[in-house]
Write a sequence for this structure.
């Protein structure tokens, strides 16, 4: 898994992409932002009916071992739109990396493969 270093205190935890299954983004180094409050903006650009997506943000001290308890959970989303939430990194000393993990679901008739076009942007 690749690691992105936050140089200007901003990075994508999820690059603008189409998601069709559960997964996770790349690890993003945030050591320099460790003493601040970050704003995370989750955007659902495209979505079909009868599907949902849940996104959580995980933390790590070394980029290899990840806490199972998320430091931030976005409410389950069904439709297109954006939502911003804040994360006080000062509450999580030793945090050197963040990454996003997502879970998708689809129900109803027709194909049961979910399809979302999303992004998650961090600014600290």
């Amino acid at each position: 898994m690749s690691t992105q270093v936050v140089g200007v205190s901003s990075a994508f935890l999820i690059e603008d992409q189409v998601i069709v299954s559960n997964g996770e983004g790349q690890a993003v180094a945030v050591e320099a932002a460790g003493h601040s409050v970050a704003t995370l903006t989750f955007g659902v650009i495209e979505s079909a009916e009868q599907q949902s997506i849940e996104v959580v943000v995980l933390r790590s001290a070394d980029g290899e071992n990840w806490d199972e308890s998320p430091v931030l959970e976005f409410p389950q989303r069904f439709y297109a739109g954006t939502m911003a939430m804040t994360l006080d990194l000062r509450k999580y000393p030793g945090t050197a990396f963040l990454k996003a993990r997502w879970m998708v679901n689809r129900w109803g008739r027709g194909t049961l493969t979910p399809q979302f076009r999303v992004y998650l942007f961090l600014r600290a």
Remarks:
- The CA atoms of residues 61 and 96 lie 5 Å apart.
- The two ends are 23 Å apart (CA to CA).
- The longest strand covers residues 37-47.
